[in-house]
Write a structure and sequence with these properties.
The protein is of the alpha+beta class. The protein is built from three helices and four strands, in the order βαββααβ. β2 and β3 form a beta hairpin.
Length: about 100
């Protein structure tokens, strides 16, 4: 079953350009992963430093494989210096589980 992953980050002031480059790199890397469907990046209306990436994967196992990969871990480490707080993750199945 397809899943959507919500990744929330608060970027430090003055670091949006650097964060944008890392987000683009992360998206290109994710596109090569098994089960990847799509992603989009949103910025907060009340605060452009609040950034959310919503990605869609064929299965939660595909997301978990990517989330725990060395390549993604390396990219997330680069993000650490740009963030004002921890990255938050939420995962959702598409549709209701009846």
């Amino acid at each position: 079953m397809a899943v959507k992953i919500f990744i929330k980050r608060k970027i430090k002031d003055g670091k949006l350009n650097e964060a944008s480059k890392l987000l683009i790199k992360a998206r290109y890397n994710a596109m090569d992963q098994e089960g990847y469907i799509s992603s989009e990046t949103l910025s907060g209306c009340d605060g452009p430093n609040h950034v959310m990436v919503i990605s869609m994967w064929q299965r939660i196992a595909h997301w978990n494989q990517w989330k725990n990969s060395d390549l993604r871990t390396e990219n997330e480490a680069a993000f650490a210096a740009l963030l004002d707080g921890p990255t938050e993750y939420e995962t959702y199945n598409l549709g209701l589980q009846l």
